[in-house]
Amino acid sequence: MINFKEDERLNKLNHSCAHMMAQAIKHLWPEAKFWVGPVIDSGFYYDIDLGDKVINDDDIEAISREMKKIAKDGKRIVRNEITKEEALEQFKSDPYKLDLINRMDESEVTISTYTQGDFTDLCRGPHVDTVKECKNFKLIKFSGAYWKGDVNNKVLQRIYGVCFDTEEELNAYLQELEDAKNRDHRKLGKELGIFMTSDLVGKGLPMYLPNGYIIWEELENYIKGKEKKLGYKHVLTPPLGNVELYKTSGHWEHYQESMFPKMEVEGEEFVLRPMNCPHHMMIYANDIHSYRDLPLRIGEIARDCRFEASGALKGIERVRSFCQNDAHLFVTPEQIESEFKIVVNLILEVYKELGITDYHFELSLRDKEDKVKYHPDDEMWDNAENKLRQVLDDIGIDYVEKIGEAAFYGPKLDVQVKPAVGNEYTLSTCQLDFCLPAKFDLTYVDSDGSKKSPVVLHRAIFGSIDRFIAYYLEERKGAMPLWLSPVQVVVLPVNNEYHLEYAKKVYQELLDAGIRVDLDSREEKLSYRMRETQTNKVPISLVLGNNERDEETVTLRIFGSEEKKNMPLSEFVEFIKEKKESHALSLD
Which residues of 380-412 are buried (b: 16+ CB within 10 A; e: fewer)? Predict the structure, then answer.
């Protein structure tokens, strides 16, 4: 998607269109007052005080019509530089503009206004030459917004829009928005019965429905199977811990604002855990270890809770309770490079098998000037960062360095994906940590009999399973590969009177073979039932009529294709079992 803030021409054009919208609103509601109207990544918005008036769909249509009149009139947009005193006088009846002006320092910023016909607005610019250039616009949505983002302030009306140079560009972008809307995992999650939310349960606390939990289980089994082949030992730890645990780890000092409040029980203070590292440190500390025991790879699909502001919550992509595909690798310093390579190769293998191609690597480093966020040990940081650089260079992976993005205890490698909807985010991560083993006094007995501290690699391949499901739903528009589909096959008898008995036989054979199958024998037209399998994005539909019954075959139709294929029932069972077990992305 286009970033309007970064594109110089679109930035100027959308800034000007925001003013044109404000002018139209002023024509319709002369008492309207305006806060700010910035260009954002996805276009522009303006915050407006309309008194007790609440914007509705009819108002948006009226504003759009008035904007078209203004654009057609084609007034020039004129810049004028004024003093602070002049600005205060000019906008003396607008408390929002006065707030902005009073916070301006004339020695640091030039105060300017822009005028187009009968409308003048306080603005630093720049703008296009005439409002005629803003004719290709669309008002996208509207909502309420607290003045200055403060819940204690008045709610203003916020209207969002976009503007382009040509109608063709506008229409292409609107089509992209429609596609993104149809891909949105929240929409797909509801339509396909993946998950639900309830304010009575709590914001940011999604619940997985049967279809969603099938996807969840398949992903969990898939990644745990790969981990077991690499020698991981899986554990189960509680989703809360004593506050002292997090004081020892340093999370209480560095991460407390993202944690839920502590709770006191029988004189002890507990907190819902935001991550699993402290628990895994204690599991390591439970035994005496030799260098021969290392690397020790501890894995867990672990429930965590983090406080997220309600405005940041989004479906299952950003939540307050989630499960991490987490693991901690306890290694000797000599094993860092080989173990890190194994983790990176596992990420690449999983991405290839799942068809994930739009991603890049970021090496997140500390900001040396930040003495508060990061564990204060220059030697440790330099050693850890150089180790990761060396590994990545040896593997031959392209990456960019991000200063100030490291965890408080060590640098990390993040895999950033560009989802089909929204901005890029981190999917997988691997972090190098010399700090926590020392904080928990973890040791192993080396070959010379001395005690040494292990190094820990924190890694998550799926990141959180919740976010991964959201990402994958949007990538595939809800059409999961066969092995992840909640229902893999639907059996459709053409006529129940003649074909239901055979349909039941097919259904049972597939069920016995471990296939997730439904039998749709409702008294509905075959065309209706087939359309429904397409709507539900079921990978395979089996149509059974006279020929199939008499010859013990099935006629299958693959989702997204009009082509039909006939094969013996026994052959079909083997075909689908092979596709399922191989985690095939397609059924071609």
Answer: bbeebbebbeebbeeeeeebeeeeebbbbbbbb
SS3 106: coil
pLDDT tens digits for range 34-83 = 998 899 988 999 999 998 889 999 999 999 999 999 999 999 999 998 88
Distance CA 17, CA 413 (A): 41
- Alpha-carbon distance of 308 to 379, in angstroms, equals 34
Please give the distance of CA 279 from its chain centroid, rounded to a whole number. 26
Adjacency order of strands within the sheet including 78-81: 78-81, 112-116, 119-122
CB 428 within 8 A of CB 347: yes
Cα–Cα distance between 408 and 456 in angstroms, integer? 14
Q: What is the pLDDT of residues 355-389, one digit of tens each?
A: 999 999 998 887 776 666 666 677 777 877 888 88
Q: Is the pLDDT of residue 395 over 90?
A: no
Cβ neighbours of residue 175 under 8 Å, at least 6 residues apart? none
- The tokens for 422 are 């929204």
Q: What HEC string does 54-85 produce?
A: CCCHHHHHHHHHHHHHHHHHCCECEEEECCHH
pLDDT tens digits for 259-276? 999 999 999 999 999 999
Catalytic center residues: 277, 306, 324, 326, 328, 412, 458
Give the pLDDT band (50/70/90) at residue 482.
very high
Say which DSSP state 279 is in.
H
Element (H, E) at 374: none
What is the percent of the chain with per-residue pLDDT over 70, rounded to a whole number? 98
pLDDT at residue 373, rounded to an integer: 66
Compute CA 430 distance to the chain's CA centroid, rounded to the nearest angstrom: 18
What is the C-alpha separation between 186 and 349, in angstroms, rounded? 28
Q: What is the pLDDT of residue 539?
A: 96
**336-354 and 378-395 are packed helices; what angle lies between their axes, rounded to 10 degrees?**
50
- Reading phi first (left if > 0) and then psi (alpha if -120 to 50, else beta), residue 328 is in beta
- Residue 376: its pLDDT value, please? 67
User: How high does pLDDT run on average in the chain?
Assistant: 91
For the chain, the first-to-last Cα distance in angstroms comes to: 31
pLDDT at 114 over 70: yes
Please classify residue 287 by burial: count the beta carbons closer than 10 Å to its beta carbon, then call 0-12 exposed, 13-18 middle and 19+ buried: exposed
User: Cα–Cα–Cα angle for 545, 549, 553, nearest 5°?
Assistant: 95
Phi, psi for residue 376 in degrees, rounded to 5: -80, 85
d(CA 543, CA 561): 14
CB 309 within 8 A of CB 324: no
Neighbouring residues of 272: CB distance < 8 A, sequence distance ≥ 6: 239, 240, 259, 260, 304, 305
Q: Cβ contacts of residue 451 below 8 Å, gap of 6+?
A: 443, 444, 445
Q: Which residues are CB-neighbours of 315 under 8 A, at least 6 positions away?
A: 184, 185, 186, 189, 195, 197, 206, 470
528, two tokens: 């209706």
